[in-house]
Amino acid sequence: MKTYYCRQLLCFAASSLMLCVICSISYAANVTRAELSKYGTYPVSSRGLDRNEENIFGLVRTVELSHTDNGSVILLRKNTYDVPGNQIEHISYNKKGEISWIGRITHDSRGNHLEDETYDRKGFLTGKTSSRYNKHGNKLDETWNDNYNNKQTSSVHTYIYDTDGSLKMVKCGISLEKKLFYNTVKRTIKELLFYSDKPGKVSGTNLVTFDLSGRPVKNESYAADGSLEDTWTYAYDANGKAVSLTMSSPGWIDKTNYDSDGNVSTEIYSIEGPKDLHSDNYEYVYDTHNNWVKKTRVHDGVPTGIEYRRFTYYD
Prior knowledge:
Blueprint: H1 13-22, H2 33-38, E1 60-69, E2 72-81, E3 87-93, E4 99-107, E5 113-120, E6 125-133, E7 139-148, E8 151-161, E9 167-172, E10 175-183, E11 188-194, E12 202-210, E13 216-223, E14 228-236, E15 242-249, E16 252-258, E17 264-270, E18 277-286, E19 292-299, E20 302-313
């Protein structure tokens, strides 16, 4: 998916929608523009990675993720959560087990991000994102400040809503970044994306289709010339839980299936064309809170790696 920000950053439209599908969401039976906006192609709020969206259960305080590498267990990252379940700190480690970078997050009473700060291994502040919200909890603006390699850059994104609360457009500075169009009869959102260096020129289009329960079932991404780049499709069980996510583009396919706990069970994907299919199967071991603590990956029938998670709990 090709999208453009002022700072040449990639928008995570499709991936953010995928997160919305996988996490536990209650959907309205009668889909309104505001509901479509809420579960649409761009997050109206900024709750980020809380415990529910990471599919972990119980009052988790911390979780450490590690994996096997040449017979050794290497720590990859550690997340810390507050009691309501918001992620308040993220630590990433390099292959030597040394801290690579640290992220710290503050939230409002709704769980929306207020400030996201990033520090390097020496504790130097390299980036900060500050967000403001209206009384409904919808994001009004987001200010990015980076200080990477002693080069300071900043940008401000503004979110504009219609009278019914639906997201109408996003601006970066004075430039239009994206514009959304709603069709409640067809249950679709059409999102126009614009080049950052070519004001008013469309860089691509996303078209999201929802079912009668307000769940996204398809997300199509088109290039500036109107050609289809990729398609995301979602399937649900009778209880409304996501059971599969399929992404396809010319000559390529990637299908992910989920088990009843919301964890990835299988992945089928192509590397060098539609006939070059490969599969990954995952086997889990769980703790007493139903969180997996060991995940084994079996690639094309051969065990290839193990990941471990270590939890601490408030209760």
